[in-house]
Amino acid sequence: MASDPETSYVKMTEVDRRGIGDEASLVGKHCQLSYCNQLDFLPFLCQSCGKTFCLDHRTESSHQCSNPGAWAERRRRANLARHAAGEDRTMRDLVSQKPCADPACKTTVGTSLAPGVHCQSCNRDYCLKHRLKEDHNCKNLVPVGARVRPEDVTTAADRAKGALEKLRIWGAKQKESASRVLPKPKPSTAAARIVATNTLRKTAKGDEKLAEDKRVYLYVEAEAETAKAKFPKGQFFYSKDWVIGRVLDAAAKSLQVQNINNKVTDERDRLRVFHVEGGRLLEFNEKVGTALVSGNTIVLLRGVGPAVPDLIKP
User: Fold this and answer.
1) 216 lies in the same domain as 246
2) Contact at 8 Å (CB) between 281 and 309?
3) CA distances from 98 to 115, 134, 144, 287 (A)
4) Do residues 98 and 118 touch, judged by C-beta distance below 8 A?
5) Which helix (H) or strand (E) holds 168?
6) Alpha carbon of 232 to those of 133, 199, 203, 229: distances in Å?
7) What gap in Å lies between CA 238 and CA 30, rounded to an integer?
8) Do 118 and 184 have their domain in common?
9) For 271-300, what is the mean pLDDT?
């Protein structure tokens, strides 16, 4: 039969459609229960014992079937003989819809609109946007199901050590190049410094409301290679009570140098203040009145970092 019904009996008309018992549709059938024998033009066939019965005696219990439950057993065996839903299929075939393996992607792959692409290298499924190895950082991924060798496992300390070594080499190069481009200290004699400072007081710009005894007059420059500025240099005065970080912000604004210190953590992108006379980088939290005196020169540098505090030895 094409499909087993839910009951132990079927109408003879249904059997007739499959080419069995044409006689029943023409002259009817007598109920085969011994004391009934009623002629029924729409008889029922019991699938357990194979006999025909009228409407009243069609069930196994009503005609006291000689082979009760046989139809149910046949049906159970037929179901067991069917192929399982996932037989001969991989897990990827069964779970067809899944999120793209890229952690930042929200696309569901395995659909008609986003079929998904399987990467043979890392053994993951990606959307079309992240299908290329370069787009999902494949070289840094451990393939799913692959065994990780002990020699391939690096600790956080090892990675940090490698990063510091790279920074040290990079910092040494920055130190060498910076020493060639930074300005030299202003006049070294006391008399020359006094004359230069007096001239600086007349040309320096700043907040006019700041008391004279609170001012520190400085020459400010931007290093051309790393801190490109609309105005390469200028003369300004700042409060002795300010910290170097505030001076950096004000100087960058005055010279129109891009300042993204509050947006980045990589030292290669951060601006720093270099004290020419002191030959060192100034910390952001140092007080102006402690680190600088009037007539000094400071330079805005990018990418030198705290790893190389003595770019030029005094």
Assistant:
1) yes
2) yes
3) 10, 21, 15, 57
4) no
5) helix 156-181
6) 44, 19, 16, 5
7) 117
8) no
9) 87
Asked whether residue 16 falls in the same domain as residue 106, the answer is no
Rounded CA Rg of the chain = 45
Q: Are residues 286 and 196 in the same domain?
A: yes
Taking Cα atoms as reference points, which of 265, 277, 251 lies closest to residue 306? 265
Residue 308 located in a structural domain: no
pTM of the full structure: 0.41
Q: Which residues lie below 8 Å from residue 258, measured CB to CB, with a gap of 6+? A: 227, 228, 252
Question: For the domain that residue 196 is a member of, what is the CATH number?
Answer: 3.10.20.90
116 and 137 in contact (C-beta within 8 Å)?
Answer: no
Is 145 within a domain? no
Percent of the chain at pLDDT > 90 equals: 16
In degrees, rounded to 5, the angle at the alpha carbon of residue 162 between the alpha carbons of residues 156 and 167 is: 125
Query: pLDDT for 141-191, tens place per residue?
Result: 888 876 655 555 455 445 545 555 655 565 555 555 555 555 556 555 667
- 3 state DSSP class of 77: helix
CATH of the domain at 129: 4.10.1110.10
Distance CA 196, CA 294 (A): 10
Count of structural domains, the chain: 3
Lowest mean pLDDT among 26-35, 91-100, 113-122, 230-239: 91-100
**Gap between the Cα atoms of 52 and 71, Å rounded:** 15
Query: 263 lies in which domain range?
Result: 176-302
